[in-house]
Amino acid sequence: MVNEDNDTIDSGEIGNGSVGRRTFLGAAGAGAVTTALAGCLGGVDSGGGDDGTLTIGHLAPTGMAMGVGSERSAKIAVNELKEGEGILDQEIDLITENTELSTSTTTPIVEEMINRDNVDLIVGTFNSEITQGIMDTVAESDVPFIITGSADVNTITDYHGEDYEKYKNIFRTGPINSHYQAEAMAGYAEHLSDRHGWTDFALLPEEAAWTTIFRDRLPGLLEDRGLNVVYDEVPSVQTSNFTPFLDDIESEGADAVIRFFAAGGRGQLLGDWAGEYPFAVEGVHVASMSPEFWDQSEGGCVFETTSQSGGGGVTELTGNTMDFVEMYEAEFTGGGQEPPSKPMYMGFNTYDAIHFYAKAAEEAGTVDYAEDLDDIVDAMLSIEHNGAAANISLAGEDADYPNDVETTETESGEVNYPMTQWQPTDDGGKQEVVYPVQDRSAKHMKPSWMS
Amino acid sequence: MLESILSVLILGAMMSAIYALVAIGFTMIFGVGGVLNLAHGGLIMIGAYAFLVSTSSSVVGSIAVPTLLGLVIATLVTAVASYVLYGGLVRYIEDNVVITFLSTVMVALLLTELIHYEFGSSPRTLLPIADGTLHLQGVGTRINYMYILGFVVSWIAIGLLWYYVSRTDEGRSILAVSMSERGAQLTGVDLESVKSRTWLIAGALAGLAGVFLGTLQTTSPEMWLNPLAIAFIIVVIGGIGSIKGSVVAAYLIGYLEQFTLEFLGTGYQGIFSLVVLVAVLLLKPEGLFGREFAHE
Amino acid sequence: MSSETDTGRGIGGRVSGAAGRVGGAAVDGLSTVTEPVDRALRPIATVYNRTLGGYFGEMNGLQFVLLVGAFLGLVTIPFWGNYTLVQATWLACIWGIFAMSWDIQSGYTGYISFGHSVLSGGAAYTTAMLLNNVNAELPMRITIPISVLIALIIGLAIALPSLRLSGPYFSLITFVAVLIFYRLIRPLSEYTGGETGLGGIETVYSTDPVMRTYAFMIPMLLIAAALLIVARSNIGLILVAIRENESAVEAAGINATKFKIWSFVLSSIPMGIGGVLLAHRFGTVTPGAFVVVDNSIEMIAMAVVGGMGSILGPLGGAFLVIMLEDVVLSGFESEIKWSILWLIVLLILVFARDGLFRKLWHGLDRLGGDRR
Q: Where exactly are the transmembrane stretches of this chain (chain B) (predicted)?
């Protein structure tokens, strides 16, 4: 089992282990005994090459539950590879760093990974601005980079779309990009309409770059499906009092509001809404993805839904989902361990990304990106991998979104875009997957106070 | 239209009352010592987290007291924290305005990091002391009972404070010091004890504000900055050191924000009050009810 | 170096005063050893004092060695430092520019600005917006001067109305300038890129760490030299006089407002240069990394740690803070790292309010014994 090897891993390069090494370097740097390490400089070109070790750099805001889930999932994936067949007989190392939430922290980290640690693969990045902040640095280095957190479609269209050759080493294996998410959301609204007879929807995307595409596309997509958009407002991220919005939504007679919130502090909308306003709250709410959100919101999230890759890890999606979730829980849940108690969506995507790359490397027969980048790219675009969150394949160079994960559809034509809902239980609440129908663990529930 | 105006009137009053709680402590501390306490937002944050820890069963194991008791605990904890901040730090450096406000910024930043470390960065929800909302059919809005409670508590606090500083000797000495430190000293006022009491009172008010802001808005490690900015704006507009000015300015800003929110959308919510602030600073820098900044 | 500001009346002052006396006694004891050393070094220092001392200030042998040693260590850093250290140096050079620029305005005149990140952010955003909204091919020789000019204009726009105010009111209005700038970025996201910011800025020498180091270090050294000359000229004297007693300056028939505006000019230009460098260091400009008030606070912290009102003190403070942040403490979790950092700054504020480097400098002065 994964547990048994845990000690050796932790004492190595991974996670907290890397702290010791960096502290040493720091102390050495501050002192005068640095000459021995001076060789590190000028070593800019020594990246790449096949040195027998595949070093994976993981980037996430590990001060947040989302980042912790991703970091732990990366460890699990690396453990599995080490214990299993490995990648082309390479030693495998994992370096994980906290990007916090700022580009100014992330850029130096990425430069170090590339120039000093000679990483052979980078996975992660959560916020769009961080992902886009390092695109050029990573593109110039040719190090393969798999995005596993941010879904902004511009990350592909503004980069690969402009200069594919430059950015061809950058991929995304999940989540599906925001363009597809908008379509999936419309499909979900249609499902709600079928199930509850809802026809009138309100839209409430926060004022942020990632919601732009929802703002642009969703009204049209809903109307195409014969649904009405009765309300469409963009609250600023500083909004703390949602009463005026909720009042207006109510007076427009909406059956449900589809809101897109990532910025913190939106628990407040729920506090005012729960038990009071006669419409459902659907859409995307990053805070609500946390398996601990029931406690954090003191149960205020009841009947709220959010989309998330991996469906919160509550039910089987691909045949590999629960195996991974159980591994995660065996190692990281309970016993006083910090949250999150589930991998969260970025964890699923990071876990899948590392396995996806392992498969691609086997296919290409090389991990030497400096020499064989084209082979690696070809392999990445040709393989298919049944991961924990989805069945993953990437779009080719000539597609609308090259190097980006393609959507998969269920038999009934629903995009594989799991929606979870907080449903009441006897002694609290739990997350259930309510969509797509084929994968759901429970049926979507209408808020109990809606008539 | 009428409905919107009514809704602005009602919601604005509720919000303004809480802003008044936020600003009064800040202005009192400035009044008696000339200290710009940039850790005031940090005190508000302490109030919110103290309430979280004492009332929520999900934080520290089995400790979960009734919410009303939680409010009392939060108020006391923040008052003590404020007193410790004064007695342990500010007292020794208040002679230098620059050093003082830089130090209090550092305290605020330090608090942010510690709370971030202890409670994580994700926002927490506080249990409401009064659950639910009042549905005003005619106006087409609902008012969270916490707003109503906040409104009531705010006015009780203002009333008590007014009684204290105008009807009791202890309170009058606070007022005296804020008018003229030297004059008060000459009449035999014990400066140290006046300042200590002021910080205690300011802390208690910040604690109350913390619980209401934390319940109605967010409880997160970043929650100190916005209340601090609000306190700034209100205090400057009302006149630094003037309690009456702060209450009036709190209502001015509260209504202004509610008005922009209702009629212009949220994008401009923060900017308008800043513009008013700049205008007041340039045209009437002493504020509506303040004196010139003339400490020595 | 300018004279030490008055030591405080409070316990902080008393404690540091006492520590100073004890330390002073120890130092005086030590000086029997160090005096000969100083004497041996003095001839070199004397050569310097005769030639350049008039511009930068005179010093004794020990001080001279410290400064020259630090200078030589710095310019050779790509040859002895490891990657982490060199990388931190890039940032330290840029923040050094910020801290010095802040100092010539706030540290010298005593008008504490919380708004300097608007100046650097304004310049960085100008560069990014020129490249993204006008023409992506604009060369640096066009974008840089325009960006610096914009920083100057913003500086004057802040200075002209706000300098009528004093004390905390001035600090408040500069703080508000940051908030307004920050809050305008989102509504204008069509041009500013909103919170994701703008990319597409050329990163200078991104594959050559050695050249890159000098690309940031040379502007920093030039700015340091220029500001030192200004600070030691009559302008610098008047700025300090404004801090110490503005009404006396006015009484002497000097237009203090004119000089306060000058201090903003002197500050805005290097702030603009630093902002542009920072943009070219990261390649992207975001509100979080360039504008938010935390940036202004960090500049202030650096200046305070090093010693306000001394140009080189804030420069040293910038290096100290960045090295602590990115090298020495980089192994800690980020919350712990920042907690330690803020605690250090707080302790320096309370116990060494004149700054570490000023203390070091005066310590060396005593160690060297009598100068003449």
A: 7-29, 35-52, 59-85, 97-117, 145-165, 198-216, 228-254, 266-283
